[in-house]
Specification:
Largest sheet: 9 strands, antiparallel
Order of helices and strands: EEEEEEHHEHEHHEEE
Number of domains: 1
Number of strands: 11
Shape: globular
Distance between the termini: 22 Å
Structural class: alpha+beta
Radius of gyration: 16 Å
Mean pLDDT: 93
Low-confidence stretches: 207-213
Helix content: 10-25%
Length: 213
C-alpha cells in the first residue's frame, strides 16, 4: 500500500486485515499530544471505538453513525482537515481467523460494556482486548499506562503479522453497493486516507521495516 505525501489512497483491508487507529498521532514514531484516542477498523472497513461519558462514567462502543454525529473529524475529510485531526493507523495482515476474532471481541464489548475510567479502563484498554483476541499482542493489558500510543508501540513490538503504518486524514464512507445489513459492525465501508507522511512497514517477513521510536 505504498504512497507519497499528499496522495489520497484507499486502505486495503478485506477479510484478512484489521487496523488499529491512534487519533492525532502525527506519524509512526511521534506520539500524539494529550495522549490521543484509540479506535479500530474492522475487516469490512467499519470503524469502532470505546468512549466514556466522563473521566469516570458509563462506556459505549461507537460505530459509524455515532462517529459521524459525535466525532465527525474521525470519519469525515472536511472535519478532519479543519480540526487538524491526523490519524495514524496500523494495518495488520493477520489472516481471516484473527480478523474474525477481532470483530467478535468488539461485538462482545458492545453487548456488555463495563463502564469507563480515564486510567485503566479507557479507549485503549478496550482496543487492547480486541488486539489480544486477534493475536496482535502477546499478553492481556498494555505495557505501562493504558494509552493509545503505548498500545500502538506494543502491537509493533509484539507483532507476528506484517503491518503497515499510514498517517494522514482518515475518511470512512459507507459502501451501499455491498451492505445489506443494518448492523454497522457487519456493514462494508470504504476507508481512505490523504497521506501526511510516508508509509512505514514492518512485522513478520518485512525486512527493513522500522519498529524504533
Amino acid at each position: 500500500m505504498a504512497g507519497q505525501v499528499g496522495q489520497s489512497l484507499k486502505i486495503a483491508l478485506g477479510e484478512d486485515k484489521v487496523a488499529y487507529v491512534v487519533r492525532y498521532k502525527p506519524s509512526h514514531t511521534k506520539a500524539p499530544p494529550d495522549e490521543g484516542h484509540s479506535d479500530c477498523l474492522l475487516q469490512t472497513g467499519a470503524p469502532v471505538g470505546y468512549f466514556g461519558t466522563g473521566a469516570v462514567g458509563d462506556g459505549v462502543v461507537f460505530t459509524y453513525s455515532r462517529f459521524l454525529s459525535n466525532r465527525p473529524q474521525y470519519v469525515n475529510y472536511d472535519d478532519a482537515k479543519s480540526k487538524s485531526c491526523v490519524s495514524t493507523i496500523l494495518v495488520s495482515s493477520c489472516g481471516k481467523t484473527a480478523a474474525k476474532a477481532f470483530r467478535d471481541a468488539w461485538i462482545a464489548m458492545r453487548a456488555k460494556t463495563d463502564g469507563f475510567t480515564i486510567v485503566g479502563n479507557n479507549c485503549s484498554t478496550h482496543a487492547s482486548r480486541a488486539c489480544r483476541a486477534a493475536g496482535l499482542i502477546r499478553a492481556d493489558g498494555i505495557d505501562g499506562l493504558d494509552t493509545p500510543d503505548n498500545l500502538y508501540k506494543q502491537i509493533v513490538k509484539d507483532s507476528v503479522f506484517p503491518w503497515e503504518s499510514l498517517s494522514g486524514y482518515l475518511v470512512i464512507v459507507p459502501d451501499a453497493t455491498r451492505s445489506s445489513t443494518s448492523d454497522e459492525m457487519m456493514k462494508d465501508f470504504g476507508a481512505y486516507m490523504e497521506l501526511t507522511t510516508s508509509p512505514v512497514s514492518g512485522g513478520a517477513g518485512k525486512a527493513g521495516g522500522s519498529s524504533s521510536y
